[in-house]
Amino acid sequence: LAKTTQPISMDSYEGQEVNITCSHNNIATNDYITWYQQFPSQGPRFIIQGYKTKVTNEVASLFIPADRKSSTLSLPRVSLSDTAVYYCLVGDINDYKLSFGAGTTVTVRA
Amino acid sequence: DTGVSQNPRHKITKRGQNVTFRCDPISEHNRLYWYRQTLGQGPEFLTYFQNEAQLEKSRLLSDRFSAERPKGSFSTLEIQRTEQGDSAMYLCASSLSSSYNSPLHFGNGTRLTVT
Q1: pLDDT digits (tens, 9 = 90+) for A30-77
Q2: CA of B63 to nearest chain A CA: how many angstroms apart?
Q3: CA B105 to CA A36: how far, in whole Å?
Q4: Is B71 in contact with B20 (CB distance < 8 Å)?
Q5: Nearest partner of B36 among B3, B71, B72, B79, judged by Cα
Q6: How many CB atoms sit inside 10 A of residue B36's CB?
Q7: Phi and psi based region of residue B82 (left: phi greater than 0; alpha: psi -120 to 50; beta: remaining)
Q8: Per-position DSSP letters for B23-53, written without gaps between them
Q9: pLDDT digits (tens, 9 = 90+) for B3-22
Q10: Where are the alpha helices (DSSP H) in B1-115?
């Protein structure tokens, strides 16, 4: 299982872009990169998934450089409701023991 | 898609009692997972089912823990002789095995408090 490293916390203000970088130096060829968001007293919620280059959906963008040893989750124009813990996971479809780590606590202030 | 449902949402029990949690996955999902989450930590893997077969159990799952998924539908997680260290949020997730990397869909968990 590829180990990931991400910042413990990040602070931002409403309307700003938040970029969270996750390091995964030991990523394997078959591994995908998946990000989840978790609010207090709720289960994690899937945000975005990618394999290489850039992926964008209605919520976020995911940037993956050519060497795939890191990835950056970009949250455009955050609001107070984006305050949550964000987890970066790396693994393939057979990785049923995905490791969440401690995640990054993002706090958005008015 | 009604999402993953977990019951109860909260459970308070006295040390030594047995508790059972239920998880109803998304209907077409054949994979089901149980995780445990303590305050300030990310979810930790406990066990995994592919249809009705339990394929993996974490070392975190002591002999007091048992999980079942009869007929590959809902799942139950039972904890016998609960201890205060069992206090945590127990999360269930499901996914669909396919040729692409299907993400996990989580329920909102059962919060267990052992007094």
Answers
A1: 899 999 999 999 999 999 999 999 999 999 999 999 999 999 999 999
A2: 19
A3: 10
A4: no
A5: B79
A6: 21
A7: beta
A8: EE--TT--EEEEEEE-TTS--EEEEEEETTE
A9: 999 999 999 999 999 999 99
A10: none
CA distance A104 to chain B (A): 10
Are the C-beta atoms of residues B26 and B97 closer than 8 Å to each other?
no
Burial class (CB in 10 A: 0-12, 13-18, 19+), A77: exposed
Task: Summarize pLDDT for B102-115 with one digit per residue, the tens.
Answer: 889 999 999 999 99
Report B:49-108 residues touching A (Cβ under 8 A).
55-56, 58, 89, 91-93, 97-108
Q: In the structure encoding, which two tokens stand for residue B31, read together?
A: 């994979």
